[in-house]
Amino acid sequence: MTNPTAAMLVIGDEILSGRTRDSNMHFLAGELTRIGIMLREVRVVADVHDDIVAAVRALSARYTHVFTSGGIGPTHDDITADAVAAAMGAKIGHRADAMALLQAHYDRAGLPFNEARQRMARIPDGASLIDNPVSTAPGFSIGNVHVMAGVPNIFEAMVASVLPKLTGGPALLSQTFKLMRGEGEIAAEFAALAAEFPDLSMGSYPFITNGAHGTNLVVRGTDPGRLDQAMVKLTRLFG
Amino acid sequence: MTNPTAAMLVIGDEILSGRTRDSNMHFLAGELTRIGIMLREVRVVADVHDDIVAAVRALSARYTHVFTSGGIGPTHDDITADAVAAAMGAKIGHRADAMALLQAHYDRAGLPFNEARQRMARIPDGASLIDNPVSTAPGFSIGNVHVMAGVPNIFEAMVASVLPKLTGGPALLSQTFKLMRGEGEIAAEFAALAAEFPDLSMGSYPFITNGAHGTNLVVRGTDPGRLDQAMVKLTRLFG
């Protein structure tokens, strides 16, 4: 059994300008790994309609799932919903189900459900809503594209709404062997070991602690038995 | 005068698996903004030759500069140099200048300059070396592609070596107006203001503090006078 694949599309000038440090990518990467969906690519693009459309099309054609973050609020720079609709060839308008959710929310809060707020009910035809337990305005899934808010706590809540509906794969496991030797010293034996285990992926990540060179050797795969075998061999080689 | 554009390509399974949280993107975004180079797109891809080649080709054709991070160490999973050479149609081999740098480095350290370490001297023909004051193994620039290490302190040192050689543009300035009102309340007036200043880019970023909704209105552009005019109007509207 193979693992489904995924890409993430982060939409936002504020990430590209360096004003805001994205945290959604790291969060989503961890969550997908846990349920056995393999994140294969991430793109960050600006708040530009054509750039969003092109990225959604490219990623949605290539991967099992696409997760987007950002650009679904009430202001003029929130253009993700319209761009995703265009990319997927869907019509978009103020949808009754989303209007009802938001109307009730603003009624409860005693705030006017004005034109800007109604923008957040623009949902493509055929999409299903993604629950937003934090601030009500929904995300949506259309085809294999899941559209979510950029604000981290809302993004995380929407991910928690969406992931249980998706079919994962065998959990993507990893084990780390840390040794206080430079990468260049162990590279040849590590490469030979990697060649012995073509079903596992092996990576090496150098670090420096108090001036001393060390390396984390990371073994990834879905078969716990094979991971254990590789770790036993690693320990024999470098332990 | 317009600003040069840039893309970044982050190479590494460890980012996509959620094991490591990337920090190079945020660092580079800030540095580029400071010198007036506009970061327009970021991609993160796995340690897969064809994926790296395709991304380098696409980004290098579209933007003034491409900056890569990751995959230039001595181990079997370090395949960036060869992939970039392939993308740029250049030959690659152990280059004499890089061999000499590394030989001297390992001689000083009293460590063998073995085959794995010699891998780090694989530099495409026609590339110029990027200085690595931290651990010697150089990055390189070929055409408009600048290839750097993934380890954050080495990446940052290489960025400091490369950026002074590039032609920037007018500094990309931004000013922020923070107000304790929800986005949906101010969206209409903010959109009208943005339409008055087509030469500036205006974005709105909601936050929640102690249960209260607030918004940062961010104005970006290169003309300090125009930014000031916009801020005066923002203050009059929402101050």
Written description of the protein model:
2 copies of one chain form a homodimer. Chain A contains 9 helices and 11 strands. Chain A has helices spanning 13-16, 24-35, 49-62, 80-87, 96-109, 115-118, 152-162, 183-196, 224-238; strands at 5-11, 38-45, 65-69, 92-94, 122-124, 128-130, 139-142, 145-148, 173-179, 201-209, 212-221. Chain A folds into 2 domains: 5-165, Molybdenum Cofactor Biosythetic Enzyme, Chain A; 173-238, Alpha-Beta Plaits, CATH 3.30.70. The two termini of chain A are 33 Å apart. Chain A is of the alpha/beta class and 239 residues long. In chain A, 40% of the residues lie in helices and 26% in strands. In chain A, the strands form 3 sheets. A 6-stranded mixed β-sheet of chain A has the order 2-1-3-8-7-6, with helices on both faces. Chain A has a 3-stranded antiparallel β-sheet with strand order 9-11-10, covered by helices on one side. In chain A, strands 4-5 form a two-stranded antiparallel ribbon. The longest helix of chain A has 15 residues, at 224-238. The first copy, chain A, is elongated, with a radius of gyration of 22 Å. The model of chain A has no long low-confidence stretch (mean pLDDT 96). Chains A and B meet through helix 1, helix 2, strand 2, helix 6 and helix 8 of A and helix 1, helix 2, strand 2, helix 6 and helix 8 of B.
